[in-house]
């Protein structure tokens, strides 16, 4: 017979006065694509790699912060205005005042569980 132990909650608290040295805001990171706003180029479940300090320009795929949330879109410049453009026509473009909303540039994608042959790079 298995012995039963009482459940207890053990809070995980950050150590005081220590820096998080294992992660840098300047290092590339990966996210999974959710939703259909970037179809057909990016399918739900694919993994995108973001370069936080990447150079964003007209046509770049970016992660931007707007309306208190992060959003994945294509950055376009039209008539002197910057737009966050979803590839899926069922979603609307969103204007941003400048590039400070851009928090990273997509540099690569890979199908979930895929091999090297399923990778695609977006920067040279």
Describe this structure in words.
With 124 residues, the protein is mainly beta. The protein has one domain (29-121): Umud Fragment, subunit A (Ribbon). Helices cover 0% and strands 36% of the residues. Strands 1, 2, 3, 4, 5, 6, 7 and 8 form an 8-stranded antiparallel β-sheet that branches. Strand 7 and strand 8 form a beta hairpin. The mean pLDDT is 86.
Give a quick rundown of the structure.
This protein is an all-beta fold and 124 residues long. 0% of the residues lie in helices and 36% in strands.
The CATH topology label is Umud Fragment, subunit A
Low-pLDDT residue spans: none
Number of strands: 8
Helix content: under 10%
Number of domain units? 1
- DSSP summary: helix tally: 0
Helix/strand structural class: mainly beta
Determine the CATH superfamily: Umud Fragment, subunit A
Main attributes of the structure:
Umud Fragment, subunit A, 36% strand, extended, mainly beta, eight-stranded antiparallel sheet, 124 residues, single chain
